[in-house]
Design goal:
This protein is of the alpha+beta class and 557 residues long. It has helices spanning 12-20, 37-48, 91-102, 113-117, 122-125, 131-138, 141-147, 153-157, 161-172, 177-199, 214-226, 233-241, 248-258, 260-264, 269-279, 289-293, 297-321, 336-345, 352-370, 378-393, 400-403, 420-432, 446-450, 462-467, 474-478, 488-494, 499-510, 512-521, 537-556, and strands spanning 5-11, 24-27, 56-60, 69-70, 85-89, 107-112, 126-130, 149-151, 202-208, 454-458, 483-487.
Length: 557
């Protein structure tokens, strides 16, 4: 029987060039690209260390093939071009790397070479920024030269990649000749140690022959999607501690039974282990993967229960006081790491101090969310926050994330569901404002959202904006300023109607006064002459931005 596949290896550069040149594409049944930027950052870190990142599966394309092709997200449109290969497994990895190394998509990725020169860990030196912020901070070679920050999009995006960038950087540095020569040598050493791993990285590739029947392709694809199981740190520690009579899985099951909120928020037990590592550290604390794997049984005995209680206490506070009703609205999951360790350190505190600590924790939470503190190097940030929060509670100065907090309200105009932290933070603010249901006027509860009766929808409907003839950019149309929590039934009734029309219908049921209360609870303009009623979209965005800005200032000061 003839083989229907053959294995090979392909350089990452060649694969991404092939995507860019429209020779590699996706079958049209593949889901849209969904990876968040943190997952992309972790993939880049693995490749910089030359770690395996899995294999790829592709099939040769041919005329009249049973899968229609479509381009990779962020790559040039196919426009009728017939690609040579279609990727069946590896879409998210290739899309992530294409966007990172070609500078497309909503985020830009960097390596802090100065940090590497100073001896910082790699996972603290690889970071990403939203496109607009990246342009502002590192959009010129002068700014990159000043801080020795290397944009990864340069690597494959200009003919001589790193070397050309290095020459431009050295031209703009003010070291004397000897110092410049020494710096060039050190940066070239960093390239050899790290950057060249990307330049020369190869993926194992399995290619299906173009004669492969449709049924075989579908079976292979379904099998891959069923068996993509990854061994976690929790699994490894559970196995390592088993001979010492510590049953991690039983501990975790018991924790979720005693504190159901842990299961309700789908907490990753790895965060518990990371918080335990910080809480029980005898020397310099760390919660990086390697340090968590080195934990001893004694640390589990000492730290597991107080940390579990601490994480549960943090989640309860977020739900009760901060509008984080469900896991889908938690802006940063890793923020549970420092919270668990800090609450564990202070669980014996009673009296008025408890209220003061909770107030400070809430302020720290909001500053971390809207200051985008956990966008990069969350493990190092968690350790830093535990030390600074502990000092703050004892009468010391504010944590850096609080003291240095700055927020530019204009960023909300480009904040869509893809910018998860800011978007979720805004939704939490709406819920914190005791947002009311448009249909009943009752306060929106976690159970209503959980039952899918409430979800985030457009205020100015997409269909209405499209039919209005007004030239509205997709980002503005879909940004958080034009979104709020609306019941399914109400949203169906809204359809493509003008805001004035659907608000008139709601007012007929609730009355004018109660409707205004509902609108105000969603930080929306109220009144008969408001920008919302009048269909003035630009004015509406201005007004809602101002309302969000005021509420953000309130919770962060």
């Amino acid at each position: 029987m003839a083989h229907i596949f053959y294995p090979s290896s392909e350089k990452l550069r060649f694969l991404l060039d092939s995507i860019h040149n429209r020779e590699v594409a996706l079958p049209d049944f593949q889901r849209d690209f969904v990876w968040d930027p943190r997952a992309t950052e972790e993939l880049i870190e693995s490749i910089l260390q030359n770690f395996p990142a899995g294999s790829l599966l592709r099939i040769k394309n041919k005329s009249g093939f049973f899968f229609a092709p479509r381009e990779v997200a962020g790559a040039p449109a196919l426009d009728g071009h017939s690609p040579s290969y279609l990727v069946l497994d590896g879409q998210q990895r290739l899309t992530s790397l294409y966007q990172a190394l070609y500078g497309t998509g909503n985020h830009r990725y960097f390596v802090n070479l100065q940090g590497l020169l100073d001896g910082d860990d790699l996972d603290d030196c690889v970071f990403y920024l939203r496109k607009r912020r990246a342009k502002r901070r590192f959009g010129t070679i002068e700014k990159q030269a000043s801080e020795l920050v290397f944009p990864l999009e340069v690597l494959f995006g200009q003919p001589n990649g790193f070397e050309e960038w290095l020459d431009q950087v050295l031209e703009r540095r003010d070291e004397d000749k000897d110092a410049g020569k020494e710096l060039k040598q050190k940066l070239r050493e960093l390239r050899t140690a790290w950057i060249q791993n990307i330049e020369g990285y190869e993926f194992p590739v399995v290619t299906l022959a173009e004669e492969t029947e449709t049924e075989a392709v579908c079976t292979i694809f379904e099998t891959l999607n069923r068996t993509g199981v990854k061994l976690s740190v929790f699994d490894l520690l559970a196995a390592r501690f088993w001979p010492e009579n510590v049953r991690l899985r039983d501990l975790w099951d018991d924790a979720q039974t005693e504190y159901p909120i842990l299961e309700e928020f789908d907490v990753d037990p790895y965060y518990i282990l990371q918080a335990v590592a910080i809480f029980t550290a005898k020397g310099a604390p760390s919660c990086k993967r390697g340090d968590v794997l080195k934990m001893e049984v004694g640390q589990i005995h000492a730290g597991w229960e107080p940390v579990v209680r601490g994480v549960a206490a943090m989640l309860q506070m977020l739900r009760d006081d901060c509008g984080v009703a469900l896991p889908g609205w938690l802006p940063y999951n890793p923020i549970l790491i420092p919270a668990g360790a800090v609450f564990a350190k202070h669980e014996d505190v009673w009296g008025p101090q408890v209220g003061a600590i909770r107030d400070k924790m809430k302020r720290w939470f909001w500053c971390s969310v809207f200051g985008l503190v956990y966008e990069n190097a969350p493990n190092s940030q968690a350790v830093k926050d535990v030390a600074e929060l502990t000092s703050w509670f004892a009468g010391g100065g504010e944590p850096d994330s609080v003291r240095n907090f700055r927020f530019e309200p204009d960023v909300l105009r480009e904040t869509t569901g893809r910018q998860r932290a800011l978007y979720r933070g805004c939704v939490a603010l709406i819920l914190r404002s005791e947002a009311r249901d448009f249909h009943t006027g009752h306060r929106i509860t976690a159970s209503m959202v959980l039952e899918k009766k409430i979800d985030d929808h457009h205020v100015f409907p997409r269909g209405y904006l499209a039919d209005s003839g007004e030239d509205v950019a997709a980002t503005l149309r879909d940004c958080v300023l034009n979104r709020t929590l609306i019941g399914r039934e109400t949203n169906i009734r809204i359809g493509k109607k003008a805001p004035a029309d659907y608000l008139d219908e709601i007012e007929a049921e609730l009355g004018a006064e109660r409707l205004d209360e509902v609108l105000e609870s969603h930080l929306l303009p109220s009144g008969t002459d408001s920008s919302l009623r009048g269909g003035r979209f630009a004015d509406f965005l201005d007004e809602r931005q101002q309302r969000f800005a005021e509420r953000i200032e309130e919770v962060t000061k």
